[in-house]
Amino acid sequence: MTRADRDLVAALRAELAAIDPSRPCDRVAEAAGLGQAPVQRESAVARLAHRLGRRSAEAATPPPTADGEPGFDWSRAADHCRMAYLRGRFLARGSLSLAGARTHLEFVVPADEAPVLAAWLADAELPASWRLRRGRGVVTWKSSETVGMFLRRIGAGAALLELEARQVSRALRGELNRVLNAESANLQRVVSAAGRQLDAIGRLEADGRLAEQPYLVRLVADARRETPEATLAEIADRLSLHRSAVQRALERLERLALHDDEGAGRRRRGGRPGGSVAADPAAAPLA
């Protein structure tokens, strides 16, 4: 991640850690999410753990799990308690990455907790994937939409707005770059095709075959020489023709120029038996 992205993630975590739950049940739930020894070592998380421990000293603390982490009764908890628990779990075991314009959030938890946490998140309409990595459970989101919804529900505010603004900005820059690249590629194709067509027109004019072409072909050739930068659609609009007619005319000119040693495009001077005149198929008038 860039320095700006790291600073934004740190600001978001500090904002979440600064939330002071007003309900005793939320304080207990968030303390359960933090666990006995949070993996994350930020000072804001340490202060939160101390504050929750002090203020919830008189509240009933859930019994610990086999791994020594406080338990949490998800099925009986209210939604606000669930979000408080998830906030604590994210601060203790979660990480957020914005590298490469991708949003990636994961929880690294005890192996047996991963499927349970994934099921709880799915129950909260925040479905996540999970896997085992080096003996630990990893619960993951790679959807920026889901990550944003989760952070919003656990209380992120100003930092989340900044994160979403950056995501929109990146998406717009990406779309702009795509459009510019496409336009640049189209322009290069137009310039390349115009160069070939002008060369073909010059060669056909030099050996006299351009004057022998149908009127429409000569009309298109003149328009191309007068506006070498024009697209096929622009030439068609200028001549009040269909774009396909302009394209066929220019393709004909290029094809004839490739066969200058065969006399392509000229009518044969001889006749077929019976007096009919044989014409080069390439010289047939355009439809």
Short structural summary:
55% of the residues lie in helices and 8% in strands. By secondary structure, the protein is of the alpha+beta class.
Record the SSE blueprint.
Blueprint: H1 3-17, H2 24-34, H3 43-55, H4 79-93, E1 94-97, E2 104-110, H5 113-123, E3 129-133, E4 136-141, H6 144-153, H7 158-206, H8 215-226, H9 232-239, H10 243-257
Antiparallel strand pairs: 1-2, 2-4, 3-4
Explain how this protein is built.
There is one protein chain. This protein is α+β, with helices and mostly antiparallel strands and 287 residues long. The protein is built from 10 helices and 4 strands. The chain has helices at residues 3-17, 24-34, 43-55, 79-93, 113-123, 144-153, 158-206, 215-226, 232-239, 243-257, and strands at 94-97, 104-110, 129-133, 136-141. Strands 1-2-4-3 form a 4-stranded antiparallel β-sheet. Residues 63-68 and 261-287 have low confidence and may be disordered. It has 2 domains: 3-156, Homing endonucleases (Endonuclease I-creI), CATH 3.10.28.10; 178-265, no CATH class.
